[in-house]
Write a structure and sequence with these properties.
This protein has a single domain (21-109), classed as Cytochrome Bc1 Complex, Chain D, domain 2 (Orthogonal Bundle), CATH 1.10.760.10. Helix content is 62%, strand content 4%. It has helices at 2-38, 47-51, 60-64, 68-77, 97-109, and strands at 79-80, 86-88. Helix 1 (2-38) crosses helix 5 (97-109) and helix 4 (68-77) packs across helix 5. Bound molecules: heme C.
């Protein structure tokens, strides 16, 4: 009986590992690649973020105006201003497609209330 309980516990732990690993990865990628401009909490309240006037992802109206497709596209391709100067770098060659897709969930989770 104890053996069964132990196997069940191990099976559950094994099933959880990939979920936890991918959750940590997207957060890690945010800290490494995005936080400088968009802030740890997605509010954009960093010196660079303020200068570039990035949006505040904690606000419901900002979230509502942004589609999942836009999140993926801008993360993949980056953004330029009218003069053609890069304002946000492209991540197509730094993040995998899966990692880019995972940003949707993370960015959505920044919304407060
Ligand atoms: C050098 C600063 C900088 C970094 C680093 C950066 N961004 Fe941005 N990001 C910007 C700027 C500036 C804009 C606004 C661009 C525009 O709309 O023309 C933007 C726009 C966006 C948008 C579109 C919605 C909006 O705010 O207009 C998303 C989504 C986004 N960034 C996600 C990310 C993700 C995910 C990362 C990391 C993988 C990242 N950004 C890294 C500066 C940055």
């Amino acid at each position: 009986m104890q053996n069964i309980a132990r196997s069940l516990l191990l099976a559950c732990a094994a099933a959880l590992v990939p979920v936890l690993a991918s959750a940590a990865d997207v957060k890690e990628n945010w800290v490494k690649h995005c936080q400088k401009c968009h802030a740890a909490d997605g509010s954009g309240s960093t010196p660079v973020g303020k200068k570039l006037k990035v949006l505040n992802y904690t606000l419901p109206e900002v979230q509502a105006a942004m589609t999942d497709e836009e999140i993926v596209k801008i993360t993949r391709d980056g953004a330029k201003d009218e003069a053609g100067k890069t304002t946000m770098p492209a991540y197509a060659d730094k993040l995998t497609e899966e990692e880019i897709q995972a940003m949707i969930g993370l960015i959505r989770s920044f919304q407060k209330s």
